[in-house]
């Protein structure tokens, strides 16, 4: 794999969004964003990182702050500070709260071209009845058109047996954003592979 160069020019636009310009050559970049109470070493995240790296993909599993008691502003600030590569081959994979966090992040950035895409696993954009402490992530409007324009591909994975995020909420996320592909699996996808 050849070397690559990175150049970031960040500026805040009039509407408060960040404009991020990044030039990377010959390298796909994946960011995995875990969910509530999770960490980078949990579930299937390390397995997926290993598999993608075997294929020459650069993968970062971001450790989100205070995952036991997450705060929207802290999570978005963390994403803004730690996502450094944005281009046509940048992809996001979010699990549960990580999905809605990716959406909030994408509302904050303007890219010169659409990013590669996103995979939402057990995602949601409406309040989860059993988790009212997460409502601040879903209580304000999403700019779905801006989000869809920011991504070339959108896939959602959900389970009818999910006991944490109701299937209907993941299905609604698909209707709102991930119209490209919807895959149904089992449970909340917490098991390691």
Output the number of helix runs.
5
**Largest sheet, spatial ordering of strands:** 4-3-5-7-8-9
Biggest pleated-sheet summary = 6 strands, parallel
Counting helices, strands and paired strands, the structural category is alpha/beta
Pick out the low-confidence regions. 1-10, 19-24
Q: Rg to the nearest angstrom? A: 16 Å
Multimer state: single chain
For the record, the count of structural domains works out to 1
CATH topology: Rossmann fold
User: What is the CA–CA distance across the termini?
Assistant: 27 Å
Walk me through what this model shows.
With about 190 residues, the protein is an alpha/beta fold. It has a single domain, classed as Rossmann fold (3-Layer(aba) Sandwich), CATH 3.40.50.1820. The protein contains 5 helices and 9 strands; from the N terminus they run βββαβαβαββαβαβ. The strands form 2 sheets. Strands 4-3-5-7-8-9 form a 6-stranded parallel sheet, with helices on both faces. A 3-stranded mixed sheet has the order 1-2-6. Strand 8, helix 5 and strand 9 (about 180-185) form a beta-alpha-beta unit. It is globular, with a radius of gyration of 16 Å. The two termini are about 25 Å apart.
